[in-house]
Design brief:
Strand order of the largest sheet: 5-4-1-8-9-12-13-14-15
Number of strands: 15
Largest sheet: 9 strands, mixed
Number of helices: 5
Order of helices and strands: EEEHEHEEEEEEEEHEEEHH
Helix content: 10-25%
Distance between the termini: 24 Å
Shape: globular
Length: about 260
């Protein structure tokens, strides 16, 4: 059995004239594997999706691929002040895998992981990347903010992570979630992150970095936070380690300088 089970779509990210492997499941899996965890990824993509090769090469990662004729594909535009994301196509929704793990990370990118997944493995430490449950889609595929289930629905989770850009009510959502979840983190890019718990909120400073590519940085943060909790670190110490990992990741494409 792996240390960590990650459930979510790998994606094809179209950036400029190129395509690269993306998705929270990809970044979380590669990050946690490089930080010492053995990881099993449950995803959906065609057998011919060759961009998965970097994930397949990770020595601590195994992949359980559920069949899909399509791969979830996003077009990413960084030309403005805020990133614009458009959904191009979607792989099949994910179903419950046969085996769990001591830690489970739910990594939806566009609602492909059902809300019921929070109850799939009741004996596991559950971490949720909320982004894909905060997304709706317009008629032309543009990603729009959407409200998640009620905060009390997340009471089985140990930690929930998302970006301040994922929802216009990010602060309010974080405060609501912290009444039911022990650890809630809102990432803020170069401004670091905020850790919320039932007692209040705490600033997590960003680590210095020479930013080249911010894609996936929030997912790297969440993956490193998960690895820290797995090692027994306190929430704040795990968040500080996560800020360092995210800083290394933005120093290049993919995981940048994270080793």
């Amino acid at each position: 059995m792996a240390d960590l089970l990650v459930i979510g779509h790998v994606t094809r990210d179209l950036i400029g004239d190129g395509a690269r492997l993306g998705g929270a499941a990809t970044y979380v899996s590669m990050t946690t594997a490089r930080l010492g965890m053995s990881v099993r990824v449950v995803t959906a993509a065609p057998a011919t999706f060759m961009l998965m090769e970097p994930l397949q090469r990770e020595p601590r990662v195994s992949i359980e691929r559920q069949e899909s004729r399509k791969v979830t594909t996003f077009s990413l535009d960084y030309s403005g002040a805020l990133r614009k994301v458009r959904l191009v196509e979607t792989a099949m929704p994910l179903t419950k895998p046969s085996e769990g793990a001591p830690f489970v990370y739910l990594a939806p990118v566009i609602g492909e992981v059902p809300f019921a997944a929070m109850q799939w493995f009741p004996g596991s430490t559950l971490v949720i990347g909320l982004q894909g449950w905060l997304r709706g889609v317009s008629g032309n595929g543009q990603i729009l903010p959407s409200d998640p289930p009620p905060a009390e629905s997340f009471s089985s989770a140990t930690a929930v992570c998302f970006s301040e850009h994922d929802h216009p009510r990010a602060e309010e959502l974080a405060t609501e979630l912290a009444r039911h979840v022990p650890i809630v983190v809102v990432t803020r890019g170069s401004q670091g992150a905020t850790l919320y718990d039932a007692g209040g909120s705490y600033r997590v400073p960003a680590s210095p970095a020479k930013e080249r590519d911010p894609t996936g940085a929030g997912d790297v943060f969440a993956g490193a936070l998960t690895a820290g909790l797995w090692r027994g670190a306190s929430p704040m110490d795990a968040a500080r380690e996560a800020a360092y990992a995210a800083a290394r990741a933005v120093e290049g494409p993919g995981l940048g300088n994270l080793r």
